[in-house]
Design goal:
799 residues, 7-stranded mixed beta sheet, 5-stranded parallel beta sheet, 19% strand, globular, RNA-binding
Length: 799
RNA sequence: GCGGAUGUGGUGGAAUGGCAGACACGCUGGUCUUAGAAACCAGUGCGCAAGCUUGCAGGUUCAAGUCCUGUCAUCCGCACCA
């Protein structure tokens, strides 16, 4: 047949829709498979060629599972709250919901044109009140469990537009739109206590099948470190508490540093002779944008506190205290004991401020640099620790500190609590009200969803509040506890909220009594295979694992981990090897590719482009190669032979085996290569029998489903090709009677010979000895050693 | 600086420690065409050759793209995490 993709692709997409071929069945007795891809943000730009890569990959897996007899859930939806939509709405004076609706329609049309086997009956949208009702419901449960709290946090403040900016709107320390100066400004915001789950988020990684780089990224992000907290007495009377991972070096602590924002600066105001200087330093640090602060990170700065000193608790020595921005208020206690001999940053600071450097671990040369190695070295200048190894000293000092009541063992994390608030309109309203008398109160569940009100303007206000703050009717309400006057929270939730539980909603998307029925959750969860971008390893993935664990703790979910398996795809780059972007002018539009080559070719090419996990540049001429392959396949119905060819049958069984296994390893490129080789062989043989062609059609079907349905129909296949049983291969039929092995002399390949498959060393050696070429290499020499690898190689070492 | 990854023909990329370059693109030649395109067939790592080839330098091994040590380059993420 001629590959008339325009006609057949539409034809089969309509048939799949009409027959509801890919709708997941609510028959909980069947074996299930839940395949998940990250739902997209429906941007105004439409689908990007990067989107179909993971979608097609999991589509292939979902399709194969259906053919293997599983009840498959492969859903799709829209993560539609977010800044670009809001900004577009502001600019074009449209309602963000209208913008969203339009973008979703476009995306959906594009996805449908690719023949992806999503179950569209379960489509969800995070901006739908029937959906965000449950996002709010989960938030309320978090709040009631004390996992949501308000805290002063810094936000990015554009001094010119006078609005709060998201991190992605800050470019090199300036506002993306007006290029005005951006500074940090404190604002009281809702936080979620994800740190309460840090240990479990870390430890449970051992129970799931994620690719290693995802696990590593999460581990580093959580950043657990073991150490101790130690209290230092100060001349001001207060105890200054520090966290250290090196309590063993306590005898080498020659000064202390507190973060500029440390509360003691204010507390000690009257005692500090140079208070003004310190405040000036703090203000200067606050003014620095993140960009500047990292740019100048090389040079240490700081101010010595005049009037307050500390006492090293192990040797009673009086030591100075500094403020410096190399100590972060957000980590540990916001204060450190500085051990310049064994910490690079402290060393640099001590050199600059001429502070004493005392070696307490022998092994390095502290006149040159800090000695930070903990694996070797023994303690010196450390009283009762002298002579101990570092690890033993660590244990002994912690025991000592605990005994004396001046410190204790402590675990710290880099992971921060989650800022769960945005000063924007287009997000889920936070279902809490503030009452003068009763404080923050949850609204009654019966009032959910708390819908976004219609506002006049979506522009953020110039005092840093969200546009909701201007809605007096909406903001003013009554306290659910005392009935008095109360005001609603006007910040909205971050975009991450809706995506933190969407995989649960897919299990039972139309339920209006619960976020999903327990029965559906127990059947479908956990997700069997989740694929997404590497960039989500530390945020979305961690957030959604946190929510799943919370719901598990609440007894609402049976699995403590939501995803059994996690893989990640590589980016598709422009033809120039650069990241695709409008400004570079190297963007490939998927619509054009589908129009010019068809969806099957597009799908096949996206899978053939290279290693799925790595990024790869687009190549239009390589797309043609995939189209050629499909055209050659399409023409096979006119090359039917009556008899089976034995060699071809062997190749077919090998191809089935290769494709079956490669799909599981996401080695789609080599699976396609094997199928190409098979078709090349069919051409070389001048045709193929009908049964074999039908079988081949089945294994190609997940990759290029439209053309395979068409071929299947022409060959008189029963039902839909997409739902026909996945073919089995016969191991025996993949084998040949003779096999080519290489012979080597001293490890250098000299030639090849045919030997019976699976033959032993003596047989192989006999055959090789009879080979003339081999003889010329060994004649007159002594054979010292023979190495034989069955069906592979025979190597002789001669002298 | 720290963490992660990647270096293989003209190009994208294949290779459980066992014949490096599968498959595809591109290119060259041929068939068919008035011509071109398409399609099909053949060839195609480098070198006239012996031989040489997986970023570079060592090492382990009968055998290394693959393992080990060092080194260089590129890309991505995080930015002083005590």
């Amino acid at each position: 047949m001629k590959h008339d993709y325009k006609t057949i692709e539409k034809k089969w997409q309509d048939i799949w829709d009409e027959k509801q071929a890919f709708v997941a069945k609510n028959d909980f007795t069947k074996k299930k498979y839940y395949a998940l891809v990250e739902f997209p943000y429906p941007s105004g730009a439409g689908l990007h060629v990067g989107h179909p890569r993971p979608y097609t990959a999991l589509d292939i897996i979902a399709r194969k599972r259906r053919m293997q007899g599983y009840n498959v859930l492969f859903p799709m939806g829209w993560d539609a709250f977010g800044l670009p939509t809001e900004n577009y709405a502001i600019e074009h004076k449209m309602h963000p919901a209208e913008v969203t609706k339009r973008n979703v329609a476009r995306f959906k049309g594009q996805l449908k044109a690719l023949g992806l086997s999503f179950d569209w009956s379960r489509e969800i949208n995070t901006t739908d009140p029937d959906y965000y009702k449950w996002t709010q419901w989960i938030f309320l449960r978090l709040f009631k469990k004390g996992l949501a709290y308000k805290k002063e946090m810094t936000v990015n403040w554009c001094t010119r537009c006078k609005v709060v900016l998201a991190n992605e709107e800050v470019v090199n320390g300036t506002c993306e739109r007006c290029h005005g100066e951006v500074v940090h400004k404190a604002k009281s915001q809702w936080m979620l206590k994800i740190t309460a789950y840090a240990d479990r988020l870390l430890d449970d990684l051992d129970t799931v099948d994620y690719i290693e780089r995802v696990k590593t990224a999460e581990r580093n992000w959580i950043g657990r470190s073991y150490g101790a907290e130690v209290d230092f007495d100060t001349s001001a009377g207060d105890k200054l508490r520090v966290f250290t991972t090196r309590p063993d070096t306590l005898f080498g602590a020659t000064y202390m540093v507190i973060a500029p924002e440390h509360p003691f600066v204010e507390k000690w105001k009257d005692k500090l002779k140079n208070y003004d200087e310190i405040v000036a330093y703090r203000e200067n640090a606050a003014k620095k944008s993140d960009f500047e602060r990292t740019e100048i990170a090389k040079e240490k700065t700081g101010v010595k506190l005049e009037g307050v000193t500390a006492i090293n608790p192990v040797n009673g020595k009086e030591i100075p205290i500094f403020v410096s921005d190399y100590v972060l208020i957000t980590y540990g206690t916001g204060a450190i004991m500085a051990v310049p001999a064994h910490d690079e940053r402290d060393y640099e600071f001590a050199k600059k401020f001429n502070l004493p450097i005392i070696e307490v671990v022998a092994g390095g040369d502290i006149t040159k640099e800090a000695y930070t190695d903990v694996s070797t070295g023994t303690m010196v200048n450390s009283d009762f620790l002298n002579g101990l190894e570092v690890s033993a000293a660590k244990e002994k000092i912690i025991e000592y500190l605990e005994e004396k009541g001046i410190g204790q063992r402590k675990v710290n994390y880099k992971l921060r609590d989650w800022v769960f608030a945005r000063q924007r309109y287009w997000g889920e309203p936070v279902p809490l009200v503030h009452c003068e008398k009763c404080g923050w109160q949850p609204i009654d569940e019966s009032e959910l969803p708390l819908k976004l009100p219609e506002v006049q303007s979506y522009e953020p206000t110039d005092n840093g509040e969200s546009p909701l703050a201007a809605m007096e009717d909406w903001v003013n309400t009554t306290c659910p506890k005392c009935g008095g006057h109360a005001r609603r929270e006007t910040d909205t939730m971050p975009q991450w909220a809706g995506s933190s539980w969407y995989f649960l909603r897919y299990c039972d998307p139309h339920n209006d009594k619960a976020f999903a029925s327990r029965e559906a959750l127990d059947y479908w969860m956990p997700v069997d295979w989740y694929n997404g971008g590497m960039e989500h390893a530390t945020l979305h993935l961690l957030y959604s694992r946190f929510w799943a664990k919370f719901l598990y703790d609440e007894g609402l979910l049976s699995c403590p981990e939501p995803y059994l398996k996690r893989t990640a795809h590589g980016m598709i780059l422009g033809e120039d090897g650069e990241k695709m972007s409008k400004s570079r002018g190297n963007v490939i539009n998927p619509d054009d590719v589908v129009r010019d080559y068809g969806a099957d070719t597009m799908r096949l090419y996206e899978m053939f482009i290279g290693d799925f996990e790595k990024s790869a540049p687009w190549s239009t001429s390589s797309v043609r190669g995939c189209k050629r392959f499909l055209e050659r396949f399409a023409a096979l119905d006119e090359m039917i032979k009556d008899v089976k060819d034995e060699e071809l049958e062997r190749s077919l069984h090998r191809t089935i085996k290769k494709v079956t296994n490669d799909i599981e390893d996401m080695k789609f490129n080599t699976a396609i290569a094997a199928m190409m080789s098979f078709i090349n062989e069919v051409y070389a043989k001048g045709g193929i029998d009908k049964e074999s062609l039908k079988t081949f059609t089945l294994i190609l079907c997940p990759f290029a489903p439209h053309i395979c349905e068409e071929m299947w129909e022409r060959l008189g296949g029963e039902g839909l090709c997409s739902l026909a049983p996945w073919p089995a291969y016969d191991e025996e039929k993949t084998k040949t009677s003779e096999i080519e092995i290489a012979f080597q002399v001293c490890g250098k390949t000299k030639g090849t010979v045919l030997v019976p498959a699976g033959c032993d060393e003596d047989t192989a050696f006999g055959i090789v000895m009879a080979n003339e070429k081999f003889a010329q290499y060994v004649n007159g020499k002594t054979i010292l050693k023979k190495i034989f690898v069955k069906d592979r190689i025979l190597n002789v070492v001669v002298k």
